[in-house]
Amino acid sequence: MSTTIRHADLEAASAPSAHDAQEVAHHTAAHDEADAHPPATNEVREARLRGAMSESNRDRIINVISPIALLLVWEIATRTGVLDARFFPAPSQIFDTLITLVKNGSLWSNTWMSLQRLFWGALLGGIPALLLGIAMGLYRPLRAFIDPLVSATYPVPKSAIMPLILLIFGLGEASKIVMVAIGVFYPVLINSVAGVREINKVYLDVGKNFGAGRWQVFRTIALPGALPLIMSGVKLGVGMGLILIAIAEMIGAKSGLGYMIWNAWEVLSVETMYVGLLTIALLGFLFTFILNEVEHVLVPWRTQR
Question: What share of the chain in percent tops pLDDT 90?
Answer without folding.
Answer: 26
